[in-house]
Design a protein that fits this description.
399 residues; alpha+beta; five-stranded antiparallel sheet; globular
């Protein structure tokens, strides 16, 4: 609670003092995202190439960083230095298109992706992962066709990951004539597939719950509310928050905020929610994809809490994606700060959620059930079954 209050107040001086003079918040690290102060985030980390974009957890161009070392340096030397690396996480569409590009080497018909990948190597800071792709596909590996597609896609990804610079990348597409992936790339792909099977078992055995499913249920419910009634926005918002209290349980702040704006017909949500139409033939796939996008942003926050680089103070994670609508979701409900210690993290947004809501008193809904009782609802729900029931409800409504 102390850490979260310090974040909300943006009291850098108090944070500095506590880090220097007490052990209350030892080992905690703080990132504050800002408009015009702090350190500029290098422009080569978050950039756009045609329809492809590299996104962080926040749209701001500057940030401040504080940990114990920083605080001590600032108190004694009035200046400090820190270092970070960037890790780019490729989503499923990027990996799938990479497969086609690397197999055919047809850069002319995949020019946007070719240039995007080339720029990532040109300004490389850190590493590349395909964790979003892993999570989206690990539960589908029982299908032999999907498994074979995953195998081929991973070979393309690990080929790209092995490049050290632009010259090696260019040589692959302009000069190299080898048509088969080398043995080490095949082995890396198979090892990763085994890790995907392990993750699948953890999910199947309920050792891990992907928050993607509850987020999917929230988006489905928002579409149901939107299409089921001609009543005013106040009624629809009340239904949304009733769903949060009685069925969702867990407070997904960013996701609730963007669904709230969607029900208000806020134009800033048009691109992201625009494919949810009554006459859409693949509306369920669209909603599932949207839930994965929002989940991946949550995953970036989680990945920032751990680092594999001993010389770096922290990792700045980004998501490589085709989804420009997701970029708008980050800017309409932006992160103010994130703090982390080991596996713990606190995310504080720019807006105070109850004040963000205009039509109803959110505190009334918050107080209807205690956080403990709401968490019990969340923990006891079979989210796979619940999502299926919401999908049927939406389809029946549209028919």
């Amino acid at each position: 609670m102390l850490v979260k209050n310090l974040q909300k107040e943006e009291n850098l001086n108090e944070i500095r003092y506590l880090l220097c003079n007490t052990k209350l918040i030892d080992e905690w690290k703080f990132l504050f995202f800002r408009e015009n102060s702090g350190v500029a985030i290098p422009t080569n980390i978050f950039f756009q190439e045609a329809k492809l974009v590299s996104l962080g957890i926040n749209g701001h161009e500057n940030f401040s960083f504080l940990d114990k070392k920083q605080a001590l340096d600032l108190s004694t030397q009035k200046k400090s230095q820190f270092g970070f690396v960037n890790c780019v996480n490729f989503d499923s569409n990027i990996i799938s298109y990479m497969d086609r590009l690397f197999l055919t080497r047809d850069k002319d018909n995949n020019l946007d992706l070719f240039l995007f990948l080339r720029n990532l190597l040109k300004y490389r800071r850190g590493d590349f992962t395909c964790y979003p792709y892993m999570y989206e596909n690990c539960t589908k590996l029982d299908d032999s066709n999907i498994l074979e597609g995953v195998r081929s896609s991973l070979k393309a990804f690990f080929t790209f990951k092995e490049f050290n610079n632009v010259e090696e990348f260019d040589n692959y597409f302009y000069n190299e004539q080898v048509k088969e992936y080398p043995q080490n790339i095949c082995k890396e792909s198979e090892d990763f597939i085994q890790m995907m099977f392990q993750k699948k078992n953890e999910i199947d055995n309920k050792q891990e719950l992907l928050f993607q499913k509850p987020i999917q249920a929230l988006i489905l419910q928002s579409a149901i509310i939107k299409f089921s009634s001609n009543k005013g926005i106040k009624f629809k918002i009340e239904q949304l928050f009733d769903f949060f209290v009685n069925q969702l349980g867990r407070f997904f702040e960013r996701e609730l905020a963007v669904c709230y704006l969607y029900l208000k017909n806020d134009r800033r949500t048009t691109r992201f929610f625009g494919k949810i139409q009554k006459n859409s033939k693949n509306i369920l796939n669209v909603i599932e994809g949207m839930s994965w996008d929002l989940y991946h942003i949550r995953q970036l926050e989680e990945l920032m809490t751990r680092s594999e680089y001993e010389k770096a103070d922290f990792e700045m994670h980004s998501l490589a994606t085709f989804d420009n609508g997701l970029k708008e979701m980050l800017t309409i409900y932006p992160v103010k700060s994130i703090s982390f210690f080991e596996s713990q993290r606190n995310v504080v947004f720019v807006y105070d959620f109850p004040n963000f809501i205009e039509e109803v008193d959110f505190h009334q809904y918050w107080s209807k059930r205690s956080p403990k009782k709401r968490n019990t609802i969340f923990e006891k729900t079979d989210w796979n079954y619940f999502v299926k029931s919401k999908e049927r409800e939406l389809l029946n409504l549209m028919n």
